[in-house]
């Protein structure tokens, strides 16, 4: 039966159909739904790891134990897992192992644009780059076969428009899941220098074998049409190029590392103009040029930044873009993402914004606190960096004789991911920052995934729930207190105490994510008589609020379809114009 | 056959993705190739959302380029204006009249333009505005706006309306099937 599924869902389905046994990963757009779909299908064991390195390491263990294994992550997650990856390339695998890395050209939801194809070159391992959902499905099967045949981990790379685009998929026959013997082979799996030296030679030999395989494999196919224009491409870029020039000739690469040199030479010799279409880095182009082959159209015409589309390909080859050149309407108010109505982060940030402190931020919903009108975050680097960066800032402040204490804001999932080690360092090195852990008991930004604090596994069954306060205490932090950021007065007082008390100070806000836990309280109402139109409540930055009526001072109104009843806006009103109905609760349900 | 391009715009949380799914599944049920694409992640938190559905004998890119959409369906007036440039000359536009404030407006940093409807009509004279929220409420649930919007364009699609109805029934079986069907038909009645 044919079905319409996303690339991520196709990978999950194929993982199950290809005899997969163990999957792990950390949520990150655009990779997240892969593991969620494995869990939803329900036939293969899977789990969320606290971070990508742990996810990959666990998958390595699974492979050693004889089970086909999958580790999923987004491109920046590969940086975290890279330490394990670089040695895994030496040890090789027992049962097949696939590392899925989802890139995000165009940065729809990421802090940088990074091309994971660099990692395949760097790690000297094969990489597959599917061009649609069907190929995503097929390449998982092919990936396991390559992994086992060549004793290597395989990277399966996707991009946002593969991971999230839906297309038609037809399932292939199932491979029964079987678990082989646990591998005991010291020289192969214990990377002491003496064994590692031998393995490096093996890695280089393996790469040559893979090169020969790339020449003959149908994963790299030639579509000979009009020879005037020949295009070498892969992944989603193939679809854009095909859309732009359906009549051109193509060398469509599925195995994108190592490259099939002879196939490229043959193709190049048969076409008039050779064009290389790739998103982000010039990985193919540089290698093709290094082979001494002339590339007529490449990165000189296609940007290294952002996504490729059919029009970019057309224009690069000197053809006109789509007939109708249209321009977007200007001067429209932007509609950036913002905290959900009722989200606990809103109250916290309105206070941080009022206190004008330096806030070292992190990756998660709370990153949105950097946007106006809250504008209360001043740096955000990568998962877990909030605490360690605040520590560095505090040390230099001290050296420079500055007295202000920086604040680090981090979520629970991020804290478990890689915030713990930063806080451990701050404790050990006698740091001086205020750390606020927004413990909403979920991984909010990626859609509410489970984590070691949420009390559930990925399958939804009950799990051990880490107690944040005890964990922080164990790291050696004496000053750790719980706060309720819906109560602005109490929260402000706690933050002030934290800023005045020397040394590391941790506040834990334990309000659950209202989206994930479907929290709803009775609506807040505005009295038109009492409202003066002073706009103080708008500081809450809630989309339920709006100005009604014209004139100098329009009054505030609340959209009942949107309000979540949190009452943060009402605490900004000095005129008692907002009534918060009693009852309801922000407890999880 | 050239691909038939549909663009669906709205605000995170309005059910744009479910509407896209209905259209994509309907195309597959009509034995056509289809690609559907939207951007997740950050866009979910009340931000501006856009989704593409491309239908045809063979569809390559999942992306609809500006100036090439056969239909633009917008769940909110301002979002209709924001993505109007996706419409090809002579393309059809249907939008929901009910406004939702962007966070920038709610925070008092920007104002919701008062002339959105006029600007839409100026650019696209036969644009259709419907009160999808009202139709959805009449069908039994304000959240069914997405089904009203699908219904409102059903007749202009290269797909039989019965196929779309079958898909909605299948997808919402046991989860508000009656409401969704009423919303779909209510939407169709606005055409
Ligand atoms: S998803 Fe949860 S944490 Fe994120 S903005 Fe919404 S309520 Fe807040
Ligand atoms: S803070 Fe009170 S008085 Fe001022 S605009 Fe808001 S509701 Fe009206």
From TrEMBL, chain A:
GO terms for biological process: small molecule metabolic process. One of its GO terms (molecular function) is indolepyruvate ferredoxin oxidoreductase activity. PROSITE patterns: 4FE4S_FER_2. [4Fe-4S] cluster 1 binds at residues 531, 534, 537, 573. Keywords: 4Fe-4S, Electron transport, Iron, Iron-sulfur, Metal-binding, Oxidoreductase, Pyruvate, Transport. The keyword Endoplasmic reticulum does not apply. [4Fe-4S] cluster 2 binds at residues 542, 563, 566, 569. Its EC number is 1.2.7.8. Its cofactor is [4Fe-4S] cluster. Residues 522-552, 554-583 form the 4Fe-4S ferredoxin-type domain. Binds 2 [4Fe-4S] clusters. In this family the first cluster has a non-standard and varying [4Fe-4S] binding motif CX(2)CX(2)CX(4-5)CP. InterPro entries: 4Fe4S_Fe-S-bd, HACL1-like, IorA, Pyrv_Fd/Flavodoxin_OxRdtase_N, THDP-binding, TPP_enzyme_TPP-bd, Transketo_C/PFOR_II. It catalyses: indole-3-pyruvate + 2 oxidized [2Fe-2S]-[ferredoxin] + CoA = (indol-3-yl)acetyl-CoA + 2 reduced [2Fe-2S]-[ferredoxin] + CO2 + H(+). Pfam families: Fer4, POR_N, TPP_enzyme_C. Heterodimer of the IorA and IorB subunits. Catalyzes the ferredoxin-dependent oxidative decarboxylation of arylpyruvates. This is Indolepyruvate oxidoreductase subunit IorA. It comes from Citrifermentans bemidjiense (strain ATCC BAA-1014 / DSM 16622 / JCM 12645 / Bem). The gene is iorA-2.
TrEMBL record, chain B:
Keywords: Oxidoreductase, Pyruvate. This is Indolepyruvate:ferredoxin oxidoreductase, beta subunit. The gene is iorB-2. SUPFAM superfamilies: Pyruvate-ferredoxin oxidoreductase, PFOR, domain III (SSF53323). The keyword Zinc-finger does not apply. It comes from Citrifermentans bemidjiense (strain ATCC BAA-1014 / DSM 16622 / JCM 12645 / Bem) (Geobacter bemidjiensis). Pfam families: POR (PF01558). The lineage of its organism: Bacteria, Pseudomonadati, Thermodesulfobacteriota, Desulfuromonadia, Geobacterales. One of its GO terms (molecular function) is oxidoreductase activity, acting on the aldehyde or oxo group of donors. Residues 12-188 form the Pyruvate/ketoisovalerate oxidoreductase catalytic domain.
